Amino acid sequence: MSDKLNELFELQSDLDNRIISERNIDKSLDEWVVGITLAMESEIDEIRREGNWKWWKNEKEIDKEALQGQVIDMWHFLISLSLKCGLSAEDIYRIYLEKNQENHARQDGTGTKEGYALEGHSNLISRKPKLNKTRSYTGLEFIYKRNTFNISNRDCTIMAIFSFYSKHFNFRMVTTYVSLSTL
């Protein structure tokens, strides 16, 4: 699959370079971002027009081939914008996996962004992003409070540290420890 995505990026790069060369286009990154996102908005409108969004009109049969063509037009602009922003096919794949897992973590109430916590996930007490050598995120570490009890005027808390890495697609327990603090 990655080879196919790389091929799409190469084809789009060739098309972009041809258009820039033949039309003598000289734009800043800001101008490219604005121009491409406007083109994407136009494509979104064309996609919407293929559907039955006008509730005041009789429904029509959706032309699936035309709809797919509009979606592919959107892909052209999305890949072009990705290239202009310095994202390779490998970057897209890697960052997508990380973001997809963060979105799942948010649905689990364990993500790094507030406002997604679900009932039953109130034991989460810490979220720490894990960085690799290039300072990019490789996963997230979550610390859950499992049980707190009192022994001889000390709070004893059993903690479990979980790490979530994009290449593993699952939580795995790294360690469990007991924290003692004097009252």
Short description:
The chain has helices spanning 2-22, 29-50, 64-84, 89-108, and strands at residues 124-131, 137-151, 154-165, 171-182. It is an alpha+beta fold and 183 residues long.
Q: Can you tell me about this structure?
A:
It holds the Pfam family dUTPase_2. InterPro entries: dUTPase/dCTP_pyrophosphatase. This is dUTPase. The structure is a single chain. With 183 residues, the chain is an alpha+beta fold. The chain folds into 2 domains: 2-87; 120-182, no CATH class. 46% of the residues lie in helices and 26% in strands. It has 4 helices and 4 strands, in the order ααααββββ. The chain has a 4-stranded antiparallel β-sheet with strand order 1-2-3-4, with no helix packed on it. A hairpin with a 2-residue loop joins strand 2 (137-151) and strand 3 (154-165). Helix 1 packs across helix 3 and helix 2 (29-50) runs antiparallel to helix 3. The protein is extended and about 60 Å long. It starts with a helix and ends with a strand.
